[in-house]
Amino acid sequence: MPHLVLLGDSIFDNGRYTKGGPDVISQVRRLLPQGWKATLLAVDGAKADEVAGQLRRLPADATHLVLSVGGNDALVHASVLDTRASSTAQAAGFLADVADHFEPRYRAAVQACLVPGLPLAICTIYNGCFPDAAYQRIVSVALMVFNDVILRAAIEHALPVIDLRSICCTADDYANSIEPSSAGGEKIARAIVGLVAASKPTIAASLTRPSAPRKHTGAASVSLGHPYADLIGLAVEEQRSGYSRCTLQVTQTHLNPHHVVHGAVMYALADTGMGAALYPTLAPGEICATIEVKINYFKPVVAGALTCVTQLVNRGKTVANLESSVHCGDVLVARANGNYSIFRPGNPGLG
């Protein structure tokens, strides 16, 4: 029986902050496929150098580990944000000192998690939700030195990363400035289960034209029902006439030899998103096929959640044009434009 174990701090051990709502571990257990189980070893308030102690309680039948730690290490050094500096160089030096303190402790935590020889995924530190926009900006920049340590460790050990900065990105995701709410916890749980268990979306659909139009509300993911999308973990979160929103959680299997997301992954998001947006516009008996897709890549992606939003630009009788934008968090990483043939099987005229 697969057995998932959550290690780290209150990102996973958030029960005291949910005001009676479900915490991360209960939502993970609800979302896991039948036959899986999950154990919480993470402890609210834990720092990186306490992970080894959590591992001493590792169940003998554990099969998968997910680690989220570092936020409390950052809190220990929060006073550096109020430290006066005589120059930008001195301020950068203060942050470098913080990184020097955190890095060996975090690396030791990761190394301890690798000892059992089980599949391991690690999480970045999210940016929190502070009411003062100026302070939020400073915190987000300061946390980059911690996330740099985490991402370099992930790359060196070829570990999949759950980028919490991209997942917990709205005020509703937080119970307070630094703790995940039930809503944020559910998003974290879905990312975990989607990564370790390759969970299938919850609404069955397909990209074959039904006899009558279908409506999708976006309340849950729409399964594409085709093997390639399932293979890469691509899900359609919203689909309606002329519009779709697709997502994909980056794992190590999506990376090229340079440890960045392969361009074909973002192309697949755009191409699938265009088909998903176009299909609800088709008449009974019609199907569509790609004529061409042009894509521009703007930023490399190493981890996180990719979101592709597609809109119909023009719909003719036999040809449609659509545009897709791919984001990682709030950063535009690629944009694509595609033309699609609309036809009835046996008569693929391009118009």
Tell me the layout of helices and strands:
Blueprint: E1 3-8, H1 24-31, E2 37-40, H2 51-55, E3 64-68, H3 71-76, H4 88-114, E4 120-123, H5 133-157, E5 161-162, H6 164-167, H7 182-196, E6 203-204, E7 222-223, H8 227-232, E8 235-240, E9 243-249, H9 263-278, E10 287-297, E11 305-315, E12 319-328, E13 331-343
Poorly predicted sequence stretches spanning 5 or more consecutive residues: 199-224
Order of helices and strands: EHEHEHHEHEHHEEHEEHEEEE
Query: What is the CATH topology of the largest domain?
Result: Rossmann fold
Helix-strand category: alpha/beta
Level-2 CATH architecture of the largest domain: 3-Layer(aba) Sandwich
Q: Strand order, main sheet: write it out.
A: 8-9-11-12-13-10
Shape: globular
Report the strand count. 13
Percent of residues in beta strands?
15-25%
Note down, in words, how this protein is organized.
With 351 residues, this protein is of the alpha/beta class. It folds into two domains: 3-196, Rossmann fold (3-Layer(aba) Sandwich); 203-343, Thiol Ester Dehydrase, Chain A (Roll), CATH 3.10.129.10. 32% of the residues lie in helices and 24% in strands. It has nine helices and 13 strands. The protein has helices at residues 24-31, 51-55, 71-76, 88-114, 133-157, 164-167, 182-196, 227-232, 263-278; strands at 3-8, 37-40, 64-68, 120-123, 161-162, 203-204, 222-223, 235-240, 243-249, 287-297, 305-315, 319-328, 331-343. The strands form three sheets. A six-stranded antiparallel sheet has the order 8-9-11-12-13-10. A hairpin with a 3-residue loop joins strand 11 and strand 12 (319-328). Helix 1 packs across helix 7 and helix 4 packs across helix 5. The longest helix is centred in the N-terminal third of the chain and has 27 residues, at 88-114. Residues 199-224 have low confidence and may be disordered.
